[in-house]
Inverse folding.
């Protein structure tokens, strides 16, 4: 009979192998996909986080991206110079500075999303339709677990 400890050890070994391989493969493909756009990978992700927002503070963006505010500020400066983003004063609190997309940033974001959708369509074509719900359910479980670990990591 297999003990819980043995089952756990086997699961962790396979989980580690699959997640490391998955993340590495995804990063390679993501880098290649985003290289076809006139923005860095960092800039593509920044635009993605801002796409549905009326603006975010530098602190909010830093937290979402997992970067120091000073690093985020340098990168945002570059994006402002490229006219992808703009800095605007808050309407309620004029001391607050919000980062938001410009028209050029929105157009680039649309192109990036179209490329992501095309890639995802090709990827999903490789997954049997009757497994789609299982895949989404598993990814959501994994995401929630990662978010909990991230919160614990940032709190320590």
């Amino acid at each position: 009979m297999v003990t819980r400890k043995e089952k756990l050890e086997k699961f962790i070994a396979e989980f580690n192998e699959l997640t490391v391989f998955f993340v590495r493969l995804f990063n390679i493909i993501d880098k290649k996909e985003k290289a076809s756009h006139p923005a860095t990978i960092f800039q593509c992700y920044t635009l993605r986080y801002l796409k549905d927002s009326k603006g975010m503070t530098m602190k909010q963006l830093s937290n979402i991206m997992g970067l120091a505010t000073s690093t985020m500020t340098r990168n945002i400066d570059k994006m402002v110079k490229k006219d992808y983003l703009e800095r605007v004063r808050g309407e309620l609190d004029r001391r607050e500075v919000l980062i938001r997309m410009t028209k050029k940033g929105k157009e680039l974001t649309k192109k990036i999303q179209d490329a992501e959708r095309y890639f995802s369509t090709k990827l999903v074509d490789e997954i049997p339709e009757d497994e789609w719900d299982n895949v989404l359910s598993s990814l959501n479980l994994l995401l929630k677990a990662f978010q909990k670990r991230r919160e614990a990591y940032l709190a320590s």
Q: What stands out?
A: The chain has two domains: 1-35, 39-125.
